[in-house]
Automatic annotation (TrEMBL):
The gene is fadA_2. This is Putative acyltransferase. It comes from Mycolicibacterium chlorophenolicum. PANTHER family: ACETYL-COA C-ACYLTRANSFERASE (PTHR43365:SF1), BLR7806 PROTEIN (PTHR43365). InterPro entries: Thiolase, Thiolase-like, Thiolase_C, Thiolase_CS, Thiolase_N. CDD domains: thiolase.
Protein backbone atom coordinates (compact mmCIF):
# COMPACT_ATOMS: atom_id res chain seq x y z
CA UNK A 1 0.00 0.00 0.00
CA UNK A 2 1.06 3.56 -0.69
CA UNK A 3 1.26 6.50 1.71
CA UNK A 4 -0.36 9.86 1.08
CA UNK A 5 0.51 13.52 1.40
CA UNK A 6 -1.41 16.34 3.05
CA UNK A 7 -2.59 17.66 -0.32
CA UNK A 8 -3.56 14.35 -1.90
CA UNK A 9 -7.26 13.89 -2.69
CA UNK A 10 -8.30 10.79 -0.77
CA UNK A 11 -11.52 8.79 -0.54
CA UNK A 12 -12.53 8.39 3.10
CA UNK A 13 -16.00 6.93 2.64
CA UNK A 14 -18.30 5.60 -0.06
CA UNK A 15 -21.84 4.30 0.12
CA UNK A 16 -24.69 3.46 -2.22
CA UNK A 17 -28.29 2.38 -2.11
CA UNK A 18 -29.21 -0.99 -3.55
CA UNK A 19 -30.20 -0.51 -7.20
CA UNK A 20 -33.91 -0.93 -7.89
CA UNK A 21 -35.83 -1.73 -11.05
CA UNK A 22 -36.49 1.45 -12.98
CA UNK A 23 -40.18 0.83 -13.42
CA UNK A 24 -43.37 1.49 -11.46
CA UNK A 25 -43.19 -1.97 -9.89
CA UNK A 26 -39.62 -1.38 -8.66
CA UNK A 27 -38.87 -1.26 -4.96
CA UNK A 28 -37.60 2.34 -5.07
CA UNK A 29 -40.27 3.84 -7.33
CA UNK A 30 -42.13 5.51 -4.46
CA UNK A 31 -38.95 7.20 -3.17
CA UNK A 32 -38.53 10.71 -4.57
CA UNK A 33 -35.10 11.21 -6.21
CA UNK A 34 -34.12 13.98 -3.78
CA UNK A 35 -34.91 11.64 -0.89
CA UNK A 36 -33.04 8.80 -2.59
CA UNK A 37 -29.92 10.97 -2.80
CA UNK A 38 -30.45 12.35 0.70
CA UNK A 39 -30.37 8.77 2.03
CA UNK A 40 -26.87 8.15 0.64
CA UNK A 41 -25.64 11.55 1.86
CA UNK A 42 -26.96 10.96 5.36
CA UNK A 43 -25.54 7.44 5.50
CA UNK A 44 -22.15 8.69 4.33
CA UNK A 45 -22.01 11.11 7.25
CA UNK A 46 -23.06 8.39 9.69
CA UNK A 47 -20.41 5.97 8.48
CA UNK A 48 -17.54 8.47 8.39
CA UNK A 49 -18.59 10.31 11.55
CA UNK A 50 -17.87 13.64 9.84
CA UNK A 51 -19.81 16.65 11.10
CA UNK A 52 -21.70 18.00 8.06
CA UNK A 53 -20.51 21.51 8.88
CA UNK A 54 -17.10 20.33 7.60
CA UNK A 55 -18.49 19.64 4.10
CA UNK A 56 -17.64 22.49 1.75
CA UNK A 57 -19.66 21.36 -1.28
CA UNK A 58 -21.83 18.54 -2.59
CA UNK A 59 -21.37 17.86 -6.31
CA UNK A 60 -23.99 15.45 -7.62
CA UNK A 61 -24.54 13.89 -11.01
CA UNK A 62 -28.04 13.59 -12.49
CA UNK A 63 -28.80 13.14 -16.17
CA UNK A 64 -32.49 13.87 -16.65
CA UNK A 65 -32.80 17.14 -14.74
CA UNK A 66 -36.54 17.66 -15.11
CA UNK A 67 -39.63 16.96 -13.01
CA UNK A 68 -38.67 15.23 -9.76
CA UNK A 69 -34.98 15.69 -10.59
CA UNK A 70 -35.14 19.40 -11.46
CA UNK A 71 -34.09 22.56 -9.60
CA UNK A 72 -30.57 21.49 -8.51
CA UNK A 73 -31.23 18.15 -6.84
CA UNK A 74 -27.83 18.25 -5.10
CA UNK A 75 -28.86 21.25 -3.00
CA UNK A 76 -32.36 19.90 -2.33
CA UNK A 77 -31.02 16.51 -1.25
CA UNK A 78 -28.38 17.86 1.12
CA UNK A 79 -30.91 20.10 2.82
CA UNK A 80 -33.32 17.17 3.03
CA UNK A 81 -30.52 15.11 4.57
CA UNK A 82 -30.16 17.66 7.37
CA UNK A 83 -26.92 19.33 6.28
CA UNK A 84 -26.43 22.90 7.52
CA UNK A 85 -27.85 25.59 5.24
CA UNK A 86 -24.28 26.84 4.81
CA UNK A 87 -23.37 23.80 2.68
CA UNK A 88 -23.78 24.49 -1.07
CA UNK A 89 -24.56 21.94 -3.74
CA UNK A 90 -24.45 21.76 -7.51
CA UNK A 91 -25.71 19.27 -10.08
CA UNK A 92 -23.67 18.22 -13.11
CA UNK A 93 -24.52 16.35 -16.30
CA UNK A 94 -21.93 14.45 -18.26
CA UNK A 95 -24.53 11.92 -19.27
CA UNK A 96 -23.82 8.41 -17.94
CA UNK A 97 -20.54 9.58 -16.43
CA UNK A 98 -22.11 12.43 -14.45
CA UNK A 99 -21.15 11.25 -10.97
CA UNK A 100 -17.74 10.03 -12.11
CA UNK A 101 -17.24 13.57 -13.34
CA UNK A 102 -18.48 14.81 -9.96
CA UNK A 103 -15.72 12.74 -8.35
CA UNK A 104 -13.18 14.28 -10.71
CA UNK A 105 -14.39 17.82 -9.98
CA UNK A 106 -14.27 17.13 -6.24
CA UNK A 107 -10.74 15.69 -6.42
CA UNK A 108 -9.56 18.56 -8.59
CA UNK A 109 -10.96 21.02 -6.05
CA UNK A 110 -9.03 19.32 -3.25
CA UNK A 111 -5.83 19.20 -5.28
CA UNK A 112 -6.21 22.90 -6.14
CA UNK A 113 -6.68 23.82 -2.49
CA UNK A 114 -10.29 24.94 -2.97
CA UNK A 115 -11.73 22.17 -0.77
CA UNK A 116 -10.64 20.20 2.27
CA UNK A 117 -13.83 18.11 2.56
CA UNK A 118 -16.24 17.57 -0.34
CA UNK A 119 -18.84 15.00 -1.36
CA UNK A 120 -19.29 13.69 -4.90
CA UNK A 121 -22.57 11.89 -5.45
CA UNK A 122 -25.18 10.91 -7.99
CA UNK A 123 -28.79 9.90 -8.36
CA UNK A 124 -31.25 8.76 -11.00
CA UNK A 125 -34.81 7.53 -10.62
CA UNK A 126 -35.55 6.22 -14.08
CA UNK A 127 -38.91 4.91 -12.90
CA UNK A 128 -40.07 8.41 -11.97
CA UNK A 129 -38.13 10.49 -14.49
CA UNK A 130 -37.94 8.54 -17.77
CA UNK A 131 -34.81 8.79 -19.86
CA UNK A 132 -35.28 11.45 -22.55
CA UNK A 133 -38.14 13.20 -20.79
CA UNK A 134 -36.15 16.44 -20.57
CA UNK A 135 -36.42 16.82 -24.36
CA UNK A 136 -39.75 18.56 -24.77
CA UNK A 137 -41.96 18.06 -27.85
CA UNK A 138 -40.89 20.43 -30.59
CA UNK A 139 -37.57 21.28 -28.93
CA UNK A 140 -34.16 20.99 -30.59
CA UNK A 141 -31.34 20.61 -28.05
CA UNK A 142 -28.75 19.96 -30.79
CA UNK A 143 -28.95 23.22 -32.74
CA UNK A 144 -28.36 23.90 -36.42
CA UNK A 145 -24.58 23.54 -36.21
CA UNK A 146 -24.82 19.90 -35.21
CA UNK A 147 -27.23 19.21 -38.06
CA UNK A 148 -24.82 20.81 -40.53
CA UNK A 149 -21.84 18.91 -39.16
CA UNK A 150 -23.65 15.54 -39.17
CA UNK A 151 -26.09 15.88 -42.07
CA UNK A 152 -26.93 12.17 -42.14
CA UNK A 153 -27.94 12.37 -38.50
CA UNK A 154 -26.71 10.68 -35.34
CA UNK A 155 -28.36 7.66 -33.75
CA UNK A 156 -29.60 6.46 -30.38
CA UNK A 157 -27.24 4.64 -28.04
CA UNK A 158 -28.73 1.25 -28.81
CA UNK A 159 -27.87 1.70 -32.48
CA UNK A 160 -24.37 2.82 -31.52
CA UNK A 161 -24.05 -0.45 -29.60
CA UNK A 162 -25.14 -2.32 -32.73
CA UNK A 163 -22.54 -0.47 -34.80
CA UNK A 164 -19.83 -1.36 -32.26
CA UNK A 165 -20.83 -5.02 -32.30
CA UNK A 166 -20.61 -5.00 -36.09
CA UNK A 167 -17.28 -3.14 -36.32
CA UNK A 168 -15.60 -5.39 -33.74
CA UNK A 169 -17.23 -8.54 -35.15
CA UNK A 170 -18.83 -9.42 -31.83
CA UNK A 171 -21.34 -12.23 -32.15
CA UNK A 172 -24.64 -12.52 -30.32
CA UNK A 173 -23.20 -15.53 -28.48
CA UNK A 174 -20.20 -13.51 -27.23
CA UNK A 175 -22.47 -10.71 -26.04
CA UNK A 176 -24.82 -13.08 -24.25
CA UNK A 177 -21.97 -15.06 -22.66
CA UNK A 178 -20.55 -11.84 -21.23
CA UNK A 179 -23.98 -10.75 -19.98
CA UNK A 180 -24.79 -14.07 -18.32
CA UNK A 181 -21.43 -13.96 -16.56
CA UNK A 182 -22.19 -10.45 -15.27
CA UNK A 183 -25.31 -11.79 -13.53
CA UNK A 184 -23.43 -14.80 -12.17
CA UNK A 185 -20.61 -12.64 -10.76
CA UNK A 186 -23.04 -10.18 -9.18
CA UNK A 187 -25.10 -13.00 -7.70
CA UNK A 188 -21.97 -14.58 -6.18
CA UNK A 189 -20.81 -11.23 -4.80
CA UNK A 190 -24.22 -10.68 -3.20
CA UNK A 191 -24.30 -14.18 -1.72
CA UNK A 192 -20.74 -13.85 -0.39
CA UNK A 193 -21.48 -10.48 1.23
CA UNK A 194 -19.03 -8.54 -0.93
CA UNK A 195 -21.48 -5.65 -1.33
CA UNK A 196 -22.53 -5.51 2.32
CA UNK A 197 -20.07 -2.81 3.36
CA UNK A 198 -21.18 -0.43 0.62
CA UNK A 199 -24.95 -0.86 0.75
CA UNK A 200 -27.38 1.41 2.60
CA UNK A 201 -30.76 -0.37 2.52
CA UNK A 202 -33.79 1.80 1.82
CA UNK A 203 -37.54 1.29 1.44
CA UNK A 204 -37.21 -2.35 2.42
CA UNK A 205 -34.64 -3.05 -0.30
CA UNK A 206 -31.43 -4.51 1.13
CA UNK A 207 -29.77 -5.93 -2.00
CA UNK A 208 -29.73 -5.06 -5.70
CA UNK A 209 -33.13 -5.87 -7.15
CA UNK A 210 -32.24 -6.54 -10.77
CA UNK A 211 -29.64 -9.32 -10.49
CA UNK A 212 -30.97 -12.61 -11.88
CA UNK A 213 -28.88 -15.54 -10.57
CA UNK A 214 -30.59 -17.99 -12.94
CA UNK A 215 -29.59 -16.10 -16.10
CA UNK A 216 -28.00 -18.37 -18.69
CA UNK A 217 -26.78 -18.01 -22.25
CA UNK A 218 -29.77 -20.11 -23.30
CA UNK A 219 -32.33 -17.82 -21.68
CA UNK A 220 -30.66 -14.74 -23.17
CA UNK A 221 -30.59 -16.33 -26.62
CA UNK A 222 -34.38 -16.32 -26.68
CA UNK A 223 -34.65 -12.53 -26.44
CA UNK A 224 -35.52 -10.46 -29.49
CA UNK A 225 -33.41 -7.50 -30.74
CA UNK A 226 -34.36 -4.35 -28.84
CA UNK A 227 -33.57 -1.69 -31.45
CA UNK A 228 -34.55 -3.17 -34.81
CA UNK A 229 -35.44 -0.43 -37.28
CA UNK A 230 -35.87 -1.01 -40.98
CA UNK A 231 -34.72 2.47 -42.00
CA UNK A 232 -31.62 2.22 -39.80
CA UNK A 233 -30.91 -1.20 -41.25
CA UNK A 234 -30.99 0.26 -44.76
CA UNK A 235 -28.55 3.01 -43.72
CA UNK A 236 -26.22 0.60 -41.88
CA UNK A 237 -26.50 -2.78 -43.61
CA UNK A 238 -23.57 -4.09 -41.53
CA UNK A 239 -25.74 -4.17 -38.39
CA UNK A 240 -26.61 -7.71 -37.32
CA UNK A 241 -29.24 -6.74 -34.72
CA UNK A 242 -27.46 -8.38 -31.81
CA UNK A 243 -28.47 -6.02 -28.98
CA UNK A 244 -31.28 -7.24 -26.74
CA UNK A 245 -32.61 -6.33 -23.28
CA UNK A 246 -30.43 -9.16 -21.98
CA UNK A 247 -27.09 -7.74 -23.13
CA UNK A 248 -27.98 -4.13 -22.30
CA UNK A 249 -28.12 -2.35 -18.95
CA UNK A 250 -31.68 -2.10 -17.55
CA UNK A 251 -33.61 0.96 -16.45
CA UNK A 252 -32.71 1.52 -12.80
CA UNK A 253 -33.18 3.63 -9.68
CA UNK A 254 -30.43 4.40 -7.16
CA UNK A 255 -28.01 6.82 -5.57
CA UNK A 256 -24.44 6.82 -4.26
CA UNK A 257 -22.09 9.20 -2.44
CA UNK A 258 -18.31 9.41 -2.01
CA UNK A 259 -16.50 11.64 0.50
CA UNK A 260 -13.19 13.08 -0.69
CA UNK A 261 -10.85 15.05 1.55
CA UNK A 262 -7.32 16.35 1.52
CA UNK A 263 -4.78 14.14 3.24
CA UNK A 264 -4.39 16.81 5.91
CA UNK A 265 -8.13 16.95 6.57
CA UNK A 266 -8.31 13.15 6.82
CA UNK A 267 -5.62 13.22 9.50
CA UNK A 268 -7.25 16.14 11.34
CA UNK A 269 -10.63 14.39 11.38
CA UNK A 270 -9.18 11.00 12.35
CA UNK A 271 -10.30 9.34 9.12
CA UNK A 272 -8.64 6.35 7.48
CA UNK A 273 -8.40 6.90 3.70
CA UNK A 274 -9.40 3.99 1.51
CA UNK A 275 -7.69 5.21 -1.65
CA UNK A 276 -6.33 8.32 -3.26
CA UNK A 277 -7.52 9.75 -6.54
CA UNK A 278 -4.39 9.17 -8.59
CA UNK A 279 -5.35 10.49 -12.06
CA UNK A 280 -8.53 11.63 -13.82
CA UNK A 281 -9.26 12.41 -17.47
CA UNK A 282 -12.19 13.07 -19.75
CA UNK A 283 -12.19 12.63 -23.53
CA UNK A 284 -14.46 13.20 -26.49
CA UNK A 285 -15.07 10.56 -29.15
CA UNK A 286 -17.05 9.92 -32.33
CA UNK A 287 -20.69 10.80 -31.47
CA UNK A 288 -21.97 8.20 -33.96
CA UNK A 289 -20.00 5.39 -32.28
CA UNK A 290 -20.65 7.30 -29.06
CA UNK A 291 -19.79 4.50 -26.65
CA UNK A 292 -16.18 3.89 -27.70
CA UNK A 293 -14.65 6.75 -25.71
CA UNK A 294 -13.62 4.27 -23.01
CA UNK A 295 -10.79 3.13 -25.30
CA UNK A 296 -8.98 6.49 -25.73
CA UNK A 297 -9.89 7.44 -22.14
CA UNK A 298 -8.09 4.35 -20.84
CA UNK A 299 -5.05 5.10 -22.98
CA UNK A 300 -4.98 8.73 -21.87
CA UNK A 301 -5.37 8.10 -18.16
CA UNK A 302 -2.62 5.46 -18.17
CA UNK A 303 -0.29 7.77 -20.06
CA UNK A 304 -0.98 10.69 -17.74
CA UNK A 305 -0.52 8.47 -14.69
CA UNK A 306 2.76 7.04 -15.98
CA UNK A 307 1.38 3.52 -15.56
CA UNK A 308 1.04 0.49 -17.80
CA UNK A 309 -1.99 -1.73 -18.26
CA UNK A 310 -0.15 -4.43 -16.33
CA UNK A 311 0.03 -2.14 -13.27
CA UNK A 312 -3.75 -2.11 -12.89
CA UNK A 313 -5.14 -4.74 -10.53
CA UNK A 314 -8.84 -4.14 -11.20
CA UNK A 315 -10.86 -2.50 -13.97
CA UNK A 316 -14.43 -1.25 -13.93
CA UNK A 317 -15.91 -0.51 -17.33
CA UNK A 318 -19.57 0.47 -17.24
CA UNK A 319 -21.68 -2.18 -18.92
CA UNK A 320 -24.03 0.15 -20.74
CA UNK A 321 -24.09 -2.56 -23.41
CA UNK A 322 -22.02 -5.74 -23.62
CA UNK A 323 -20.15 -4.72 -26.83
CA UNK A 324 -18.75 -1.62 -25.08
CA UNK A 325 -16.70 -3.69 -22.64
CA UNK A 326 -15.74 -6.37 -25.17
CA UNK A 327 -14.55 -3.83 -27.76
CA UNK A 328 -12.63 -2.00 -25.01
CA UNK A 329 -10.90 -5.19 -23.91
CA UNK A 330 -10.04 -6.16 -27.47
CA UNK A 331 -8.49 -2.79 -28.31
CA UNK A 332 -6.68 -2.13 -25.03
CA UNK A 333 -5.62 -5.71 -24.33
CA UNK A 334 -6.99 -5.51 -20.79
CA UNK A 335 -7.66 -8.73 -18.91
CA UNK A 336 -11.40 -9.41 -18.68
CA UNK A 337 -10.82 -11.64 -15.65
CA UNK A 338 -9.85 -8.47 -13.74
CA UNK A 339 -12.75 -6.45 -15.14
CA UNK A 340 -16.08 -5.90 -13.35
CA UNK A 341 -15.13 -8.71 -10.98
CA UNK A 342 -18.36 -8.42 -8.97
CA UNK A 343 -20.58 -8.00 -12.00
CA UNK A 344 -21.52 -4.84 -13.84
CA UNK A 345 -24.43 -2.69 -14.91
CA UNK A 346 -26.04 -5.41 -17.05
CA UNK A 347 -26.75 -7.26 -13.81
CA UNK A 348 -26.63 -4.62 -11.07
CA UNK A 349 -28.28 -1.84 -13.05
CA UNK A 350 -27.38 1.56 -14.48
CA UNK A 351 -29.13 4.46 -12.70
CA UNK A 352 -27.55 6.97 -15.08
CA UNK A 353 -26.47 9.90 -12.89
CA UNK A 354 -25.63 7.62 -9.96
CA UNK A 355 -23.59 5.04 -11.85
CA UNK A 356 -20.18 6.73 -11.66
CA UNK A 357 -20.35 7.00 -7.87
CA UNK A 358 -21.96 3.55 -7.59
CA UNK A 359 -19.13 1.97 -9.55
CA UNK A 360 -16.47 3.87 -7.60
CA UNK A 361 -18.03 2.69 -4.34
CA UNK A 362 -17.96 -0.91 -5.56
CA UNK A 363 -14.43 -0.52 -6.94
CA UNK A 364 -12.95 0.90 -3.73
CA UNK A 365 -14.36 -2.03 -1.79
CA UNK A 366 -13.22 -4.62 -4.34
CA UNK A 367 -9.70 -3.18 -4.28
CA UNK A 368 -9.65 -3.57 -0.50
CA UNK A 369 -11.07 -7.09 -0.63
CA UNK A 370 -8.55 -8.24 -3.24
CA UNK A 371 -5.57 -6.48 -1.66
CA UNK A 372 -4.79 -4.64 -4.91
CA UNK A 373 -2.98 -1.37 -5.40
CA UNK A 374 -4.28 0.34 -8.55
CA UNK A 375 -7.75 0.29 -10.10
CA UNK A 376 -9.09 1.98 -13.22
CA UNK A 377 -12.70 3.03 -13.82
CA UNK A 378 -14.05 4.23 -17.16
CA UNK A 379 -17.52 4.96 -18.52
CA UNK A 380 -18.90 5.67 -21.98
CA UNK A 381 -21.25 8.63 -22.25
CA UNK A 382 -23.96 9.95 -24.51
CA UNK A 383 -22.80 12.30 -27.23
CA UNK A 384 -19.43 10.57 -27.57
CA UNK A 385 -17.43 11.11 -24.38
CA UNK A 386 -15.82 9.11 -21.59
CA UNK A 387 -14.29 9.60 -18.16
CA UNK A 388 -11.45 7.52 -16.76
CA UNK A 389 -10.13 7.53 -13.21
CA UNK A 390 -7.25 5.67 -11.57
CA UNK A 391 -7.30 5.19 -7.81
CA UNK A 392 -4.54 3.85 -5.57
CA UNK A 393 -5.33 1.91 -2.41
CA UNK A 394 -3.98 3.34 0.84
Amino acid sequence: MAGYSDRDAVIVGAVRTPVGKGKASGALHEVLPADLLAHSLRELLTRTGVDPVEVEDVIAGAVTQVGDQAVNIARNALLGAGFPESVPGTTVDRQCGSSQQAISFAAQGVLAGAYDVVIAAGVESMSRVPMGSSVLPGSNPFGTGMAQRYPEGLVAQGISAELIAARWNLSRTELDEFSAESHQKAARATKDGLFDAELAPIAGLATDEIIRPDTTIETLAGLRPAFYNEAIGARFPQIGWEITPGNSSPLSDGSAAVMITSGAAARRLGLTPLARIHTTVAVGSDPLYMLTGVIPATEKVLSRAGLDLSDIDLFEVNEAFAPVVLAWARDTGADLSRTNVNGGAIAIGHPLGASGARIMTTLVNALQQRDGRYALQTMCEGGGMANATIIERL
